[in-house]
Specification:
Blueprint: H1 11-20, H2 37-40, H3 42-60
Length: 62
């Protein structure tokens, strides 16, 4: 999860880290800056955390 408007951690750094990850993965673009993206993107964050937790359950054999 990263915002193109992050003024502290540049967007391309988030993309580079994403490319290093193994599946399952998903790059999620947020709204807002470094310190307010949680508030500006709360709906996006919650939706994708639910996806992530579901993927963990699916791939863990539980």
């Amino acid at each position: 999860m990263h915002s193109p408007n992050d003024e502290i951690v540049r967007y391309h750094h988030g993309r580079e880290l994403y490319e290093l990850l193994e599946e399952p993965k998903r790059f999620v673009e947020l709204r807002g800056g470094h310190n307010d993206n949680f508030f500006a993107s709360r709906d996006i964050i919650l939706k994708n955390w639910k996806w992530y937790l579901n993927e963990l359950n699916t791939h863990s054999g539980i």
